[in-house]
Amino acid sequence: MSVLRDTSDQLVQSRKQKLQDGSLITGALTGIGRAAAIIFAQEGARIVVSGRREKQGKELVAELKALGVEAIFVYGCPQR
User: Fold this and answer.
1) What angle (nearest 5°) sits at the alpha carbon of residue 54, between those of residues 63 and 45?
2) pLDDT over 90 (residue 50)
3) Which of 25, 64, 68, 77 has its CA 20 to 30 A from that of 41?
């Protein structure tokens, strides 16, 4: 049983390290992308969110920072 616990602890530590390295989430302003950004923030991830609406992007960044993580918004519009 201790081997399983050790392996589980190692996986958790590895996951936390990867989240701290940072995550880029495109389409993060609504729906699944927004939910993913919030979940990643709750896990302690450093986050870059991208989307087409600057005002909503800045609002999301403020929400993520309120969860205690580093977050920035990058405007992205594939049509321009």
Assistant:
1) 40
2) yes
3) 77
Q: Does 32 fall in a domain?
A: yes
**Residue 23 burial by Cβ neighbours in a 10 Å radius (0-12, 13-18, 19+):** buried
Range of the domain at 39: 2-75
Report the alpha-carbon distance of residue 6 to residue 41 in Å, rounded. Answer: 26
Mean residue pLDDT across the chain: 84
SS3 label, residue 53: coil
Specify whether the backbone of 22 is left (phi greater than 0), alpha (psi in -120 to 50) or beta.
Answer: left
Residue 80 lies inside a defined structural domain of this protein = no
Prediction pTM value: 0.74
